[in-house]
Amino acid sequence: MEFRGAASHPELRSAIRALCRTFPPEYWRRLDEERAYPEEFVQALTRAGWLSALIPEEYGGAGLGVTETSVILEEINRCGANSAACHAQMYLMGTLLRHGSEVQKRQYLPQIAAGRLRLQSFAVTEPTTGSDTTRLKTTAVKKGDRYVVNGQKVWTSRVLHSDLMLLLARTTPLAEVKRKGEGLSVFLVDLRGVLGKQVSVRPIRNMVNHETFEVFFDELEIPAENLIGEEGQGFRYVLDGMNAERILIAAECIGDGYWFIEKAAGYARERVVFERPIGQNQGVQFPIARAYVNVEAANLMRFRAAELFDRGKPCGAEANMAKLLAADASWEAANVTLQTYGGFGFAAEYDVERKFRETRLYQVAPVSTNLILAYVAEHVLGLPRSY
Fold first, then answer.
1. Burial class of residue 110 in the structure, from the number of CB atoms within 10 Å of its CB (0-12 exposed, 13-18 middle, 19+ buried)
2. First-residue to last-residue Cα distance in the chain
3. Residue ranges for the chain with pLDDT beneath 50
């Protein structure tokens, strides 16, 4: 069945669905059981050009906007797949595109677009500071024509399947800056040849099949030309890219939400108990209907935020609200679907329990819903800063 949310960009949606059909549910169940990376799926997306959606045509990419890119990620999740395996390459483009030098863009973007390089990893969060990014402790000290990096990151994903990493590190001690957001810099790190040496990783087994690590930097040398933008302005660059990240994650949640609702509605129509379809009972149909209403509402906010972003307009509030509404809607839909399936919802063969675990992540990552509420309270409603 088709819902109204699928009306926009029909040709784009059709192409993504055709690709995803070549990776049936059995593929994702096997990977989930083996805790394996969907290498074949990511390669297929790369060959089709979808992972270069945001790279301008002059650098070999598709030159699409955040709106179209959000539809790509939505449809991947709507097909029962998990775009978290590769979504970073979408939203990491913004930092390099907006703040990288022309030399950097011409050196890396065509290779990324062609699939010869992967930029899938972003090292920001640290175990002792969490969301308080301005207090991170990883340092990058300039020595001649190089920066020497020491420190530790956590929840750094896809390191083993990425050639390049974006790294946020402190280049000026916190005690020496006027504002706590100053003194942080962004670097493009070439991981080839340094993994297992100056960069070591420790896998974090987690609730979902999401490859993520603790990362340790020990005297890692980065060429000075790999600094993105100006030294000390990295925190601003990271914040600038977060709006795209929020919008794209919202789209993934919306894709999950529609997948859950389609599963719940389909099962409720077919499952007969006490000689009647369970979907005939209002106690079953009302929660599904409400979940659909909330996904549709979140979908509207996603497109509003994406429209503003693509027009170059301020969209911090809209991007944050889209992410919160979509994460809440997908989690509600997940719970409704599990309840509709009853015991069968816990069986791996129906995929509900896998997607249930996957969508739960977005209540926490890449930003907690509580931090979004704090942002709206302060920056939209004018309430006193709470942290």
1. middle
2. 45
3. none
Q: How many CB atoms lie within 10 A of CB 381?
A: 7
Cβ atoms 269, 108 nearer than 8 A: no
Q: CB neighbours (10 Å) of residue 191?
A: 17
User: Dihedrals φ, ψ of 266, to 5°?
Assistant: -65, -45
Question: What is the CB neighbour count within 10 angstroms for residue 10?
Answer: 10
Backbone angles phi, psi at 48, to 5 degrees: -80, -10
β pairing state of 212-223 and 146-157: antiparallel
In degrees rounded to 5, what are phi and psi of residue 366? -75, 0
Residue with tokens 């930092």, as numbered in its chain: 95
Residue among 252, 264, 386, 230 nearest 323 (CA): 252
Q: What is the pLDDT of residue 203?
A: 96
What sign results for the dihedral spanned by CA atoms 162, 168, 170, 172? positive
- What is the structure's pLDDT at 91? 83
Alpha carbon separation from 358 to 207, 251, 362 (Å, rounded): 8, 14, 8
Q: What is the pLDDT of residues 294-312, one digit of tens each?
A: 999 999 999 999 999 999 9
Rounded to whole angstroms, how far apart are CA atoms 179 and 197? 35
Strand partners, 227: 187
Evaluate if pTM is beyond 0.85: yes
How far is Cα 86 from Cα 382, in angstroms, rounded to an integer? 37
User: 164-170 and 146-157: which strand pairing?
Assistant: unpaired
pLDDT at 5: 53
| Contact between 72 and 16 (Cβ < 8 Å) | yes
Token pair listed for 56 = 């301008």
Q: What angle do CA 306, 310, 313 make, to 5 degrees?
A: 90
- SS3 of 109, please? helix
| pLDDT score of 8 | 86
β-bridge partners, 60: none
Q: How many C-beta atoms lie closer than 10 Å to residue 196's C-beta?
A: 8
